[in-house]
Write a structure and sequence with these properties.
By secondary structure, the chain is an alpha+beta fold. Among the domains are: 46 residues, no CATH class; 124 residues; 60 residues. The protein has 25 helices and 17 strands. The strands form six sheets. Strands 4, 5, 8, 9, 10 and 11 form a six-stranded antiparallel β-sheet that branches. Strands 3-2-12 form a three-stranded antiparallel β-sheet. A two-stranded antiparallel ribbon has the order 1-17. α24 runs antiparallel to α25.
């Protein structure tokens, strides 16, 4: 493989595109990057300085920093060096900084970030305005649409039940749900891409940790129509870039990262571009080893050399370059003007019959490659394909690296951990001094005054040694002595205890707490935020101020993480816009979305027509969520909203929209309650009127029934009187007959008696005829319905009585 060499300054940026695509140009650019950053082994190089700084911060952030410095400090500070007390100390670092890093990282990741895509071009704006107008019309015609649905069973557009009831609710609905088909397609595809890459739980978490630890986070994006859109984590200590003071790195012209890999991995990446002798030269130049032995690998089907396990540093780099694309404006013989593409190299033609005028268009292209550091080998170099661009400004392009930093000064970011390293060292040293003080602490002892025991009987005939006295005192705890000496003076107790405390322990503990407070002040993570010492008597306002102070201290990290998330999502959206319709990855997206959602599938082909703006949104913080939940519970307790309203409010992620929806639903519930109250009042009034009418009707029926009963009583009384008169008449007739017989007491002949009887019959007959006429008149009146049928004393109708009388 041909080796390339070049100067250590950057190549000509105005060179032709053909020259820029050559490996010699790429090698010269890579060697210029190497000369600017230096080698990792050179302690004075920028790459080594930043690598060492980041690595040190990462070690402190994980609690695995080097403890040799503490041993040297203790040996120098120990006045009794060499006493062996340091041999028993535990030099394991106190994991204080890892705790604060986890608090910051978990606090940022606790509020789930999600992209909200909105098309900002004029075409999509007109479409969304049309959709908003349509929803406003549906809100105004909601009653008619519901009546039409109930009558026909069909719906026009949206289900009427889903249409908002008023303009205020419609405004919230429009803000949350009105999206064009292309916006929905881009939103779904972006969410799926992030999910497939496990971005939130893997790459983004590591990046937020890097922001807190190193002050820089890097994500590399790769897109291939056959392999998909990938997001890769890049360690900041391996990242290099052009000079910049922009914390968002928007103005960098080149970027890359160093990958340490075995030569075996290098063979896989550079397959077909480097030969076996090239790898041998790389191993000899970079590692100083040749590794001549080899063996044949049956599984790989090739020789495995000893130097395949040697590690080399490979720089994967990209850079931006502006190329001029030429067009020629030419006039034909008919006077018309046409434009013709002439490529990147253009030479003006002379002697043309018709007028020719060149036009150039500057386009930014991205070139990439791999460079083995310390050698002259480059591979995989060329102009990058499938570069995502904005359709409304195709002249611009950006590299595949998304980078953010906090407090960037002279190419070195200042992180939260690097600001606390000095305090962490002093805290660790204080912790070791506490251990040393404990190790040097003496046990409790005794002071035994031998002279004070001279006048005490020590036994039958012997003297006790001091150790024996100590044993007696330890076993019994009692010892007798004389309080006066032979001269008569008082003497102290011969045995006294020595209470030995740990030397300077309180001062050391106070010093430990001092450095811990310094770390809290530097990071902004106070006791309220980490909930290490919660105080029940602390006022709510004090707690809120403490939380606000912590948010202000960590704002740089929070803001940088959101910028990084937004840049990654912007990259993904632009990569989606350039996916070919016939590519494999496009089929994967379609299969993932599902064939049922045809509107989204058809919108994928329209994505390049739109210019999308990405807004990174996050869930409510604990304070807003607690405030909103309290308002919801109060409204539920007062029955101002329903359970369905509370569920809809909780689903909103923006606290402002949630509060607006709560107000709208409360007003809607109040209006509904007022309408129901009025309806109940109307129903009660109507029921009262119906009850009053029913009572009047019942009273009238009662009076009618009483009148009818009275008439029936009068009719019955008349019938009884008529029957009584008829019976009285019969009785009188019989009496008159008997009386006549008694009156005719004289004897007469039968003929005379018969004549008298005939005369009496004729008189009675006249009376019966008169009565019959009266009864017939009553019967006629009865038949005409003017009176009821008359009955005799036995209950038989009077017509039977009359018939009997006529027959008699």
């Amino acid at each position: 493989m041909k080796q390339y060499s070049g100067k250590k300054n950057f190549p000509d940026p105005l060179a032709s595109q053909e020259k820029k695509e050559s490996k010699s140009y790429g090698l010269k650019y890579a060697k210029a990057i190497e000369s600017q950053w230096g080698k990792r082994s050179d302690s004075n190089s920028l790459f080594s300085k930043r690598y060492t700084s980041f690595k040190r911060s990462q070690e402190y952030a994980t609690g695995v920093q080097d403890t040799a410095i503490y041993k040297r400090l203790l040996n120098n500070l120990d006045p009794n060096a060499g006493d062996g007390s340091l041999m028993n100390l535990d030099f394991t670092p106190v994991p204080v900084l890892p705790k604060f890093v986890r608090i910051v990282v978990n606090k940022i990741l606790g509020r789930n970030l999600y992209p909200n895509l909105e098309a900002v071009d004029p075409l999509s704006s007109s479409e969304k305005n049309r959709d908003k107008k349509r929803i406003e019309i549906q809100v105004a015609l909601k009653k008619q649409l519901m009546a039409f649905r109930d009558k026909t069973g069909a719906t026009i557009g949206m289900d009427p039940e889903m249409i908002p009831d008023n303009e205020a609710e419609a405004e919230i609905f429009i803000g949350e749900n009105v999206k064009s088909d292309a916006e929905i397609a881009a939103q779904v595809a972006t969410d799926m891409t992030l999910s497939w890459n496990n971005f939130d739980d893997n790459v983004f978490r590591r990046c937020v940790n890097d922001l807190a630890t190193s002050g820089m986070a890097v994500v590399k994006r790769s897109n291939d129509p056959n392999y998909g859109i990938k997001t890769h984590y890049v360690d900041p200590k391996d990242f290099i870039h052009s000079e910049t003071n922009d914390p968002s790195f928007d103005d960098i012209t080149y970027a890359g990262h160093v990958r340490t890999m075995p030569i075996q991995e290098l063979k896989r990446i550079a397959s077909g571009e480097l030969e076996e002798e090239d790898f041998q030269k790389i191993a000899k130049k970079v590692t100083g080893k040749t590794g001549g032995g080899y063996q044949y690998d049956n599984s790989l089907g090739r020789n495995i050399y000893e130097y395949d396990e040697y590690s080399v540093d490979v720089l994967e780099f990209e850079f931006l370059s502006t190329d001029c694309m030429y067009f020629e404006e030419k006039e034909n013989r008919f006077g018309n003007r046409n434009f013709f593409y002439e490529g990147f190299d253009y030479k003006e033609k002379s002697g043309s019959v018709f007028e020719r005028k060149p036009h150039k268009m500057e386009i930014v292209n991205v070139y990439k490659g791999y460079f083995v550091l310390g050698t002259d080998y480059i591979f995989g170099y060329g102009r990058m394909q499938n570069v995502p661009k904005n359709i409304y400004d195709i002249s611009k392009a950006r590299m595949s690296y998304s980078v953010v930093a906090t407090n960037l000064t002279d190419m070195m970011p200042k992180s939260m951990v690097s600001s606390c390293i000095g305090f962490a060292d002093m805290l660790q040293l204080t912790h070791l001094k506490i251990q040393q003080a404990i190790a040097k602490a003496k046990p409790d002892g005794l002071i035994i005054d031998i002279e004070g025991l001279e006048n005490v009987q020590l036994g039958k005939g012997g003297e006790l040694q001091p150790l024996e006295l100590h044993d007696i005192y330890e076993q019994t705890g009692v010892f007798y002595y004389r309080s006066k000496n032979p001269e008569g003076g008082f003497q102290n107790p011969p045995i006294r205890e020595i209470g030995n405390s740990i030397r300077n322990i309180n001062e050391l503990i106070g010093l430990y707490n001092h450095y811990l407070r310094m770390i809290r002040d530097t990071t902004g993570i106070n006791e309220v935020v980490d909930a290490s010492t919660p105080k029940s008597e602390a006022l709510v306002g004090v707690r809120e101020q403490a939380i606000a102070a912590s948010n202000n201290a960590t704002y740089d990290i929070t803001n940088a993480s959101m910028i990084l998330y937004k840049n990654v999502c912007n990259d993904i959206v632009k990569c989606l816009q350039i996916l070919p319709e016939e590519s494999v990855i496009m089929e994967v997206y379609k299969n993932a979305i599902g064939q049922t959602n045809m509107s989204i599938l058809s919108s994928f082909s329209r994505l390049p027509m739109y210019n999308f703006g990405v807004q990174v949104q996050k869930d409510m913080d604990d304070k807003d969520q607690a405030y909103l939940e309290q308002a919801i519970q109060i409204s539920l307790g007062q029955k101002e909203i329903d359970l369905e309203d509370a569920m809809a409010i909780r689903e909103l992620k923006d606290v402002n929209q949630a509060e607006r929806l709560l107000v709208v639903r409360r007003k809607k519930k109040l209006e509904k309650a007022q309408a129901m109250a009025m309806q109940q009042q109307q129903m009660q009034a109507q029921m009262a009127q119906q009850a009053q009418a029913l009572q009047l009707q019942m009273d009238a029926q009662k009076m009618q029934a009483e009148a009818q009963i009275e008439a029936q009583k009068m009719q019955l009384k008349a019938q009884l009187e008529a029957q009584t008169s008829a019976m009285r008449h019969e009785f009188n007739k019989e009496i008159e007959l008997i009386r006549a017989k008694a009156t005719l007491g004289f004897k007469e002949t039968d003929e005379e008696f018969k004549e008298k009887i005939e005369v009496l019959k004729e008189d009675r007959k006249d009376d019966r005829v008169k009565k019959q006429a009266v009864e017939q008149s009553k019967l006629i009146s009865q038949r005409k319905g003017q009176r009821t049928e008359l009955k005799d004393e036995e209950g038989n109708p009077m017509r039977n009585l009359l018939t009997n009388m006529q027959d008699g």
